[in-house]
Amino acid sequence: MVVTRAYRKDLAGEFFATVRQDRLLYALVAIYAVLGGAYVSSRTGFSLDAYQVYGSLWLKNYLLIFPIALFGAGAVRIVLRLDQRRTLAFRHMFSARRMAHFFAGTLLIFALWPFQATFTSIKNALSINGFLYDRVQADIDKLIHFNTDPWQLLFWLTDSRAFLYIVEVNYMVVWFVLCFGILYWVAVSPNTGGFRVRYIVSFMLVWIVVGNLLASAYISAGPVYYGHVTGDFARFGEQLALLARNEGHFNAAVNYQNYLWLLHENDVTGLGSGISAFPSVHVALTMLNALFVYEFSRRLGWAFFAYTAFIVFSSVYLAWHYAIDGYASIAVTLVIYYAVRYLPAVRPVFPTRKPSDAHAGAVRRETTAGR
After folding, report:
1. How many domains does one find in the chain?
2. What is the pLDDT of residues 112-155, one digit of tens each?
């Protein structure tokens, strides 16, 4: 592919236009980083540890793994679906418009690096006065679930080690790939202009409102740490013993749970450090994706809603959360979604045709122009 002066001009124009459209997002990141940094400084003293921890993760995922997956999937799609004019399809994949959005989206993703680091720094500082609401939240959970702690109902359904392993891999790996993969695609794709800013504003608000503000107001550690923070190791002891059967296996929940408590006890910042159970960010982000997917495909949207229910199930099954953590997250996410949806600055644009049709139309137009 020859990079002409016209190509460079189109790429630069589209790139800067997209960056200008993202100015609200950059402003929100800056405001959050400044206010969050001030809060952390007043509580524990400011530190760059979280920035260093997430720096390597961001470089590996967003400059290597996700770009390879993105362009690799595009190449495979062209090879498998097109018998002719593959060269033209590859030219379209690397068109000035697409590459401009790719570079602008990558820049935006890296602006979320300080956002995520600030979130972790705040979360680390939340528990400085201890975990105050575990007994209350566990008692509410029991009261609304037929006077039974919900984990007992779930393990009554199945306590298979194989099933436990599937739940663990999904919760620790698949969830990450889905949530951050969708974020990456929304940021870099040229086909997400109608909801790009709205989605990322909602994404950030989930972390801030669910993971910081509400977590701070009702700070709790969750069932896995219930004994550590209340002195009652018996209440969830049987559940933890069942989870410990997979200790040492790749992605076993108990391994990561022990890792987080070790960081907490030693006041050390690490990947994902900071403990707070109520509400659940895991559930909130999954619910947010379900709501956005439903805008474009009801069938796929219902599949995402079912997946959200499975994440709620998993969060209780693995002792990360009380059930009410997930219920509250779903309610708060609905409020965030509809509140942002009607902000004038991020007014939604609903598609009139499927993205795949739009892509096919663009290829046809380039094909016609090239004849």
Report:
1. 1
2. 999 999 999 999 898 888 899 999 999 999 999 999 999 999 98
Query: Model-level pTM?
Result: 0.88
Domain hosting 55: range is: 5-370
Q: Coil, helix or strand for 64?
A: helix
Question: CA angle, 22 as apex, 17 and 23 as ends, to 5°?
Answer: 100
How far apart are alpha carbons 34 and 94 in whole angstroms?
Answer: 37
Helices (H), 158-280: 161-169, 175-188, 196-205, 215-217, 226-230, 237-243, 253-265
CA-based diameter of the chain, in Å?
76
Q: How far is the C-alpha of 269 from the C-alpha of 274, rounded, in Å?
A: 8
Please check whether residue 298 is in contact with residue 309, taking contact to mean a CB–CB distance below 8 angstroms.
no
Place of tokens 């663009």: 362
Residue 78 tokens, joined:
């062209």
Distance of CA 178 to the CA centre of its chain: 8
